[in-house]
Amino acid sequence: MGTEKSTSSKSILQNDAAFRADFRQRYASRGAHYEEYEPAYRYGVLLRERYALKLWSDIEQSARRDWELDRPGTWDHFKEAIRKGWEKSLH
Q: Are 19 and 56 in contact (CB under 8 A)?
């Protein structure tokens, strides 16, 4: 299990610049702060590791359910950042 965590951390660190660039392009003009969206990018990375052989369309509903357990009603606000984390983890 420690390996999974270090793999996640490594992937997040490797993609931090890409996540920040995506944030600036999509959300910064709305007055948002990266720290608000960083957990969504991180969650996307974790999803990719958990469901490595699945398609986004296969896991989106369960990802939403799990996300909203701790953050009710926020999926629609963060889903694009979550998906970006998922997609970037492919590279």
A: no
